[in-house]
Specification:
The complex is a heterodimer of chains A (335) and B (503).
Chain A: H1 7-19, H2 25-35, H3 37-50, H4 57-82, H5 90-105, H6 110-133, H7 139-158, E1 163-164, H8 173-176, E2 178-179, E3 182-183, H9 184-202, H10 204-214, H11 216-221, H12 226-252, E4 254-255, H13 263-274, H14 285-305, H15 310-334
Helix pairs in contact in A: 2-15, 3-14, 4-9, 4-10, 4-12, 4-13, 4-14, 5-6, 5-7, 5-12, 6-7, 6-12, 9-10, 10-12, 13-14, 13-15
Chain B: E1 9-20, E2 23-34, E3 38-42, H1 49-56, E4 64-69, E5 72-74, H2 79-84, E6 87-90, H3 102-106, E7 113-114, E8 117-118, H4 120-134, H5 149-162, E9 167-171, H6 179-194, E10 198-202, H7 206-212, E11 215-220, E12 223-229, H8 235-242, E13 263-272, E14 275-283, E15 287-292, H9 298-306, E16 313-318, H10 328-333, E17 336-339, H11 343-347, H12 354-359, E18 367-368, E19 371-372, H13 374-385, H14 403-416, E20 421-425, H15 433-448, E21 452-456, H16 460-466, E22 469-474, E23 477-482, H17 489-497
Parallel strand pairs in B: 3-10, 3-11, 6-9, 9-10, 15-21, 15-22, 17-20, 20-21
Antiparallel strand pairs in B: 1-2, 1-4, 4-5, 7-8, 11-12, 13-14, 13-16, 18-19, 22-23
Helix pairs in contact in B: 14-15
Chain lengths: 335, 503
């Protein structure tokens, strides 16, 4: 009666059954990499055929403009997840940065207001990271608690009101300026994604992020400062959330403390649908981009085709379950 | 439990074999356990005794061979199925739920229920009855997490009895206990046997085996050496039985040890969890072996020297008296590398490629301005792997490699840091014979290049074949140092197996 049995028995059985038809590891991992691309392309083609207004420059640029904030946050959030953490405070940071910069822009030039807003995010991210690593509080709880604190601070700043910037249109120039046929909001987003993507894929710290999330103990023995790497990922996540908050405040020339409430989950959904593992060690920024856009296309498709938007959420939920299920399945066959 | 056949045989094994990867852990074992006897299994680390115990208890399935209980053939797919025929195990790692009470732990998974609710009164009543028949008791309501190790073990024994176990497999039951608790455990085991239970006892402690057992089976390299009455054995005869094989794997020539080589690593009075005051000196170009049983503190010593665990006292210095700085990252920068005991838990990042695993510890050397120069990384990796016969591409995920090749990846990572001292903890564990030789060659060539190697191994043969000197550890201390002339299998085993001093 050594082990609380059942479990051991069950595992032994299922492993025995799987062994016969196992794909080689590399095959299942390739399959997963491609996983999100195929449905994305299929959806894109379907929408192009079924709605004449889908594949137009206006519609596509509009989607990118609307998704700029989510894409930036999700790109940085990918780093956090790959490093083995999770950041539930991004929505609150987004709101705090938005109201901070909007509030400051009432009294000063747009540029310093924007910079201070973004810096706030890096600071919150650093605090998140330190609490979640050196203080050994689970990232889930630490960032959830932090999101309440930050949300409260944001409400204190605005006294619960909408901060309106219609008298300070200079603040809007950050995102409304046209450059090479697209708004600057889109260009900023592209730069952020490319920088974060290259950082994760090509930099030394990027490698450490994968190692820290894939096997923290092995990474530590190999000389990686796992805690420091994780703090960096949280800082980037905080900074990205703040940048996104400032961008949206500039896009709509207003900000309020409650603006980021559902954003955190939209971001997580995008990352997970893209195929980045919530258990750490695997994932890529480009996949997150495809995942976020996939979800955006579903929403866009419901709008264009005039489908009942009630089904949109159900669709999204099912897709997320599928994505996480595929991840769990792929992991199980590796060990 | 009246047997189907009239004989006294409780469990019979016939031609049982078990393989782990390429390693034959058990090779055609045939054995009979008699009802109401204490049957001990002895052998070196890796001789197969725990594996055999697990097969009897249903935790492992034999690849070949027959297992019969009371004359009826069985094939257990799980410990639960073994329990169904009255066979239970008390494992080395205890499985107590610390938040639950003693009584709840005893009946875990088999609680008396009424309409799905646990009946506390019935539970208590059953517990009292059980304690009475068992002949020993623990406070029923005490939370199990507050029990001492010895008492937690008693909970496990009660749990086995509560499932009406007729045969209890005990794997190193006294390994974690101190003096008086060992005595108490022995009494319990004896009284279980008196009441007709059969005990299969896996133990490192030869005196314990001789005191308790009716019958002793000696295993060596997965093969059965002999089974005989304990009365006719002595500590010497058991050790003799556990040894005495011809040297199997061929070893490369030991590196020549230059005269007056400088000290590469000096450890003084090191204390850490599991290590109680170890001092040692390792010279450049020397291979220093560390022998000892599992739990003797060898891995703890390695981790403390390397900085993976914190020291509580003592000092570690590298060449020229440079002190180590107490973290893995700093140790690697200072030229002290460690090949960890467990490839999977502490060594490799399984989801990543071979090349990423190799370069992980020396990424800075192949990066510029924080960006990995992939061409430089490839070139550096190729330089290390030259002539290694690594049977894998560098872009393959490391999880798809065999144990031997995975170990080579870890070696490559160490070498890329160009260490002056390498601690290798069980470098050939779970590696097939061919790869073993490759790893031996690597260790020797490192020593020839002036690297000081601290080689921890449970395979005595390996230590004899490679090391210039061997330290034997027991109970967190170095109990014996054997120089070139004094090293022999029996000297090492005698020191490692010597009984603990009376507590």
């Amino acid at each position: 009666m050594a082990s609380p049995d059942g479990t051991a028995a069950g595992r032994g059985l299922s492993r025995g059954r799987l062994e016969g038809r196992q794909l080689p590891d590399w095959a299942s991992s390739r399959l997963r990499s491609a996983g999100i691309v195929i449905p994305f392309v299929a959806l894109f083609i379907t929408l192009t055929i079924s709605s004449s207004s889908f594949a137009t420059k206006v519609n596509l640029l509009n989607i990118l403009d609307q998704q700029a904030a989510v894409l930036i946050i999700a790109a940085a959030g990918t780093l956090v997840l790959v490093a083995g953490g999770i950041d539930l405070s991004v929505g609150a940071v987004y709101a705090l940065a938005g109201v901070t910069s909007a509030e400051l822009a009432q009294h000063m030039a747009p540029a310093p207001a924007i910079i201070v807003g973004v810096l706030v995010g890096f600071v919150v991210g650093a605090v998140n990271g330190i609490v979640a690593t050196y203080f050994r509080i689970s990232a889930l709880i630490a960032t959830l608690a932090m999101s309440f604190v930050i949300g409260g601070i944001a409400s204190l700043i605005t006294h619960g009101n909408l901060v309106v910037l219609f008298n300070h249109p200079g603040f809007g120039d950050l995102t409304h300026t046209q450059f090479l046929g697209a708004k600057t909001s889109i260009w900023i987003m592209l730069v952020a994604i490319v920088v974060l993507g290259l950082f994760l894929a090509r930099s030394t710290i990027g490698r450490y992020i994968y190692a820290a999330g894939g096997n923290a103990e092995a990474a530590r023995i190999a000389g990686v400062n796992v805690n420091r790497v994780r703090v960096v990922s949280f800082m980037l996540s905080g900074g990205a959330a703040a940048l996104a908050g400032v961008i949206d405040a500039s896009r709509v020339l207003s900000a309020q403390s409650a603006s980021g409430e559902s954003l955190t989950f939209t971001v997580l959904a995008g990352i997970v649908v893209g195929g980045t593992s919530i258990l750490g060690g695997e994932g890529a920024v480009w996949r997150t981009v495809v995942g976020v856009l996939f979800i955006a296309l579903i929403g866009n498709g419901y709008d264009l085709l005039g489908l009942n938007p009630l089904y949109e959420q159900i669709t999204l939920g099912v897709i997320m379950l599928l994505a996480v299920g595929i991840d769990a399945w792929a992991r199980q066959r590796r060990t | 439990m009246a047997g189907v056949d009239s004989s006294n045989t409780h469990v019979e094994l016939e031609g049982v074999s078990k393989r782990f990867g390429g390693v034959l852990a058990l090779d055609g074992i045939s054995l009979k356990l008699d009802v109401g006897t204490i049957h001990a299994l002895v052998g070196e680390n890796g001789a197969g005794k725990s594996t055999l115990g697990k097969i009897v208890a249903g935790a492992l399935q034999p690849d070949e061979g027959r297992l019969a209980v009371h004359g009826v053939d069985v094939s257990f797919r799980s410990p639960r199925e073994a329990l169904g025929t009255g066979i239970a195990a008390v494992a080395q790692e205890l499985t107590i739920v610390p938040q639950l009470s003693v009584a709840e732990n005893v009946f875990l998974g088999a609680e008396p229920r009424r309409a799905g609710w646990v009946s506390r009164r019935a539970l208590r009543k059953r517990y009292d009855r059980l304690a009475e028949t068992a002949g020993f008791a623990l406070p029923a309501e005490r939370s199990a997490g507050r029990l001492r190790t010895a008492e937690q073990q008693q909970v496990e024994i009660l749990r086995a009895l509560s499932r009406e176990a007729e045969l209890i497999v005990m794997d190193e039951p006294s390994a974690a206990l101190g003096g008086p608790d060992v005595e108490r455990l022995h009494e319990i085991i004896r009284s279980l046997a008196r009441s007709g239970k059969t005990i299969l006892l896996v133990s490192h402690f030869l005196r314990e085996v001789l005191e308790l057992a009716d019958t002793v089976t000696i295993l060596r390299d997965g093969q059965l050496v002999r089974t005989g009455a304990a009365k006719e054995e002595s500590e010497e005869s058991l050790i003799q039985g556990m040894l005495g094989r011809p040297l199997g794997a061929a070893f490369p020539d030991k590196p020549k040890r230059g005269e007056n080589q400088p000290v590469a690593l000096a450890v003084r009075d090191l204390h850490a969890p599991g290590v109680g005051g170890v001092s040692l000196e390792l010279r450049a170009g020397e291979i220093l072996g560390v022998a000892g049983l599992i739990g003797a503190g060898r891995t703890e010593l390695a981790r403390a020297i390397f900085g993976a665990d914190r020291l509580s006292a003592g000092s570690v210095e590298l060449a020229d008296g440079r002190p180590v700085r107490g973290t893995p990252a700093a140790s690697l920068r200072d030229g002290l590398a460690m090949l960890p005991e467990s490839r999977k838990e502490q060594g490799l990042v399984f989801g990543r490629s071979v090349i990423e695993n190799i370069s992980l510890s020396s990424l800075r050397g192949v990066s510029r301005a924080g960006v990995v120069n992939r061409r430089a990384e490839r070139a550096a990796t190729a330089r290390i792997l030259e002539g290694w016969s690594l049977k894998a591409g560098v872009d393959q995920p490391v999880s798809s490699l065999s144990g031997g090749n995975q170990q080579k990846v870890l070696f490559a990572r160490m070498l890329m840091c160009s260490p002056s001292v390498l601690i290798a903890d069980e470098p050939t564990r779970g590696v097939d014979v061919g790869a073993k030789r490759a790893i031996y060659d690597l260790l020797v060539s490192l020593a020839e290049r002036g690297v000081g190697v601290l080689l921890i191994s449970s395979e005595v043969e390996e230590l004899l074949g490679l090391a210039h000197r061997v330290l034997v550890m027991r109970g967190g201390r170095v109990v014996s140092e054997l120089g070139e002339g004094e090293m022999s299998e029996s000297a090492i085993l005698a020191a490692a197996f010597a009984e603990r001093e009376a507590a």
